[in-house]
Design brief:
This protein has 196 residues and is α/β, with parallel strands linked by helices. The protein is built from 6 helices and 9 strands; from the N terminus they run βαβαβββαβαβαβαβ. The strands form 2 sheets. Strands 8-7-6-5-9 form a 5-stranded parallel sheet. A 4-stranded mixed sheet has the order 1-2-4-3, with helices on one face. Helix 1 runs parallel beside helix 2 and helix 3 runs parallel beside helix 4. The longest helix is centred in the middle third of the chain and has 16 residues. The protein is elongated, with a radius of gyration of 18 Å.
Length: 196
Amino acid sequence: MFKVNAVGLACPLPVIETRKALKDNDRVETTVDNEIATENLRKMANQLGFTYELKKESEKRFVVTITKADNAEKAGQPEAATKDGDEYIVVIDSVTMGNGDEQFGENLMKTFIYTLTEQDVLPKQIIFYNGGVPLITEESEALTDLKKLAAAGVKIYGCGACLNFYGLTDKVGVGEITNMFAIVEMMRKAYRIIKP
């Protein structure tokens, strides 16, 4: 079994290093020092169709073992782009929409998110990063609409490093915390990206 020591590595390095190791190894054991890293590794394993095991050794030491599954031959290989006509994702990096008056911009963003709930074709994913992450917190005025979108099957993601930077990690009210590696992959694979 190949071992990766990712203790002290910032997101998304534990995911990147583990994924690299999985290219040449059927079983990889990664040691990390925080629970967000274990969740990011779990999500990666699920995406690739691999098995995931977690052992918590202490408050600051977690050992994740990822094993290639027999039916995951092509996992980790580049996928063909999907071009399903109306498929799209939305990326939001601010609590305001556009430049100008801040309060008006916040109202526009709230209206934009509400309007997404009324579309005949919903986005596949909505990704929040940098100044946009407050919108997925418990105090967000857009929370009800975002929960409605999530209930309708829209995947909502917030950048973990961004949430941590703004001190909002414990205040997430909807969606999943993800990492920059996953964000780049979602954007790369998207047929269409909308940024308000």
